[in-house]
Design brief:
binds zinc ion, binds nicotinamide-adenine-dinucleotide, about 50% helix, seven-stranded mixed β-sheet, alpha/beta, single chain, about 350 residues, globular, two-stranded antiparallel sheet
Length: about 350
């Protein structure tokens, strides 16, 4: 088993990565010295495969678990679902020391994390991420929340889990498209922080696409290390944490303009990162050969790298970018790559450069 520490003073926790961890859930929770009552929050897709194992493991360890099952997908990330969860927690009489287990992808992690952050002014929670995206990104760092009609993730909190258990076996049942989308975040870590990881991804891509357990273990651990390091230095997105948004300003706008649901998040940010790489070539001198390596790696990971937009859509894309949550003082600031493995942040980019990069 690989363990990655997240160092945040009294809010520190461990990320544990290995196959078969779901069976250990109960024992792992015992070490945290939590209350006896707990609730597993999951969705129907994940629940039918893994809820029983999670439930049994907790029960065998002496806990009294209950199960809360919500609909799968982004549509469940609402205050309405939050309300349903609160009501069920109250019925099961969860109290201050009780805890939640978020068993699922990023939707479940964000939703259950938000419920944990707010129920009784906060109860402990454990993340058991079951998508690649959730294992390398959303389960680490403590951002939790739900969507409003006006936009994604507009209500939320910074609330750290007590433990993250990445059971690599759960990735075996992940649909191909979801798996590829997760790879877009993995590649992002290479671009922003780690040229060796990027080169390893280029070399090991065929094995990675086959979900080779050894490669997966090393890769998930390395991504978690990078995210833990960044979050440890900037928990609440005051500065450095912004580098994790490489390709995201454009990616989020693509998601919005094309109608949520057309592109998965990972697909949209694959395009966003390629556009950001092209902008980086013009603005901060990222070598052309590296732009090409970046585009090639996304392509061979089965991800889109370009988007065709008409003039109306383009205008909408720019308007959406200006409304991104990360805009400060009305100006869009970009994270750009000087070379693979090294980015700088806070760049103002002229609209023409983005127009050109969009092709
Ligand atoms: N908090 C953060 O820092 C952060 C970071 C990135 C993304 N997010 C959020 O994460 C969400 C996206 O997460 P996601 O991509 O994991 O999507 P998701 O949670 O919707 O999961 C994708 C689909 O895969 C299914 N699934 C999950 N695990 C499975 C498994 N092991 N086998 C079979 N099917 C499985 C789910 O039921 C769902 O249908 C978005 O809401 C996004 O805003 C949060
Ligand atoms: Zn992302």
């Amino acid at each position: 088993m690989r363990t990655v520490p997240v160092s945040l003073g009294s809010r520190s926790y461990a990320i544990k990565i290995a196959p078969g961890l779901l069976e250990q859930l109960g024992c792992e929770c015992l070490r945290l010295k939590l209350g006896q009552r707990c609730a597993i929050v999951t969705d129907t897709n994940v629940g039918k495969r893994y809820a029983k194992a999670a439930f049994n493991s907790l029960a065998t360890a002496g806990f009294a678990p209950s199960l809360i099952i919500v609909q799968p997908g982004e549509a469940a990330k609402t205050l309405k679902t939050v309300q349903t969860c609160y009501d069920q927690l109250a019925v099961h009489r969860l109290e201050r020391k009780s805890f939640l287990v978020a068993l699922g992808g990023g939707v479940i992690g964000d939703l259950a994390g938000f419920v944990a952050a707010t129920y009784l002014r906060g109860i402990p929670f454990v993340q058991v991420p079951t998508t690649l995206l959730a294992q390398v990104d959303s389960s680490v760092g403590g951002k939790v929340g739900v969507n409003l009609k006006a936009g994604k993730n507009l209500v939320g909190a910074f609330y750290q889990p007590r433990l993250v258990l990445c059971d690599l076996d759960t990735l075996k049942t992940l649909p191909e498209r979801e798996y590829h989308a997760g790879l877009a975040e993995v590649i992002k870590y290479g671009i922003i922080c780690d040229a060796r990881l990027f080169a390893r991804l280029e070399r090991d891509e065929p094995r990675l696409l086959k979900r080779d357990p050894e490669i997966l273990a090393a890769m998930v651990a390395r991504c978690c290390e990078i995210k833990a390091e960044v979050v440890g230095r900037d928990e609440t997105e005051g500065g450095l944490r912004a580098i994790l948004n490489f390709g995201h300003t454009i990616g989020h706008a693509i998601e919005a303009v094309s109608g949520y649901g057309k592109y998965l998040h990972g697909e949209a940010i694959a395009i966003g990162q390629v556009v950001a790489a092209k902008v980086s070539r013009q603005a901060v001198g990222l070598p052309e050969a590296e732009v090409q390596r970046i585009e090639r790696l996304f392509q061979s990971a089965g991800l889109p790298t370009r988007i065709k937009l008409n003039s109306v859509q383009r205008r909408k894309l720019f308007a959406t970018m200006c409304m991104d949550k990360k805009v400060s003082d009305g100006e869009v600031r970009f994270v750009l790559a000087k070379e693979i493995g090294s980015v700088t942040r806070g760049h103002r980019v002229p609209a023409e450069l983005i127009q050109q990069a969009l092709g």
